Amino acid sequence: MKKHLYNAIFDLMQDHRIDQISTDMILRKSDISRATFYRYFKDKYDLMNWYYASYIKEELFHSEDNWEQICNKSAEFIYERKLFFQNAIKYKGQNSFIEFIQKYYQDFCTATYVSRNNSQAVSTELKFAIDYHCAGTIQIFISWVNSDMKLSPKELAALLCNNMPDILKSGLNATAQTHT
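The chain above was modelled as a monomer; its predicted structure follows.
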């Protein structure tokens, strides 16, 4: 069911921003009932964000790849769904994709660092570095998507990783010790 709903919103977002898409449009396109939609998602923004979060969780969280490879896979995912992401980032209001991805990326970086370094907590300095890196990365991501993705995903990933704070670079590239 979730995939049917995602396919509907994905198709609609090839031509429309999320704020131009109604729940009724998604329901008509997916041929799924309103009750079923709300059983899985609280609103269209939740559906839009679910797909990205599912990809990260399934494909990247438990990855043994180094951080540059993880960034490259994430950039390729976005690159292959260019119109979807161009339309997703155009909406700037409450529940925006940018707001979602900023928080999600901070949590993902923190969880990856903790997992790969057998840490229990994150220091104030490390939290600042994560927040700083994530804010910059999201702004670069927005610029990249809006510039018609002139850099390849691999070039973007290399630049992001080469300019990452040192305190993060070593920790995110550490070999994964445990998986949660």
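The mean pLDDT is 89.
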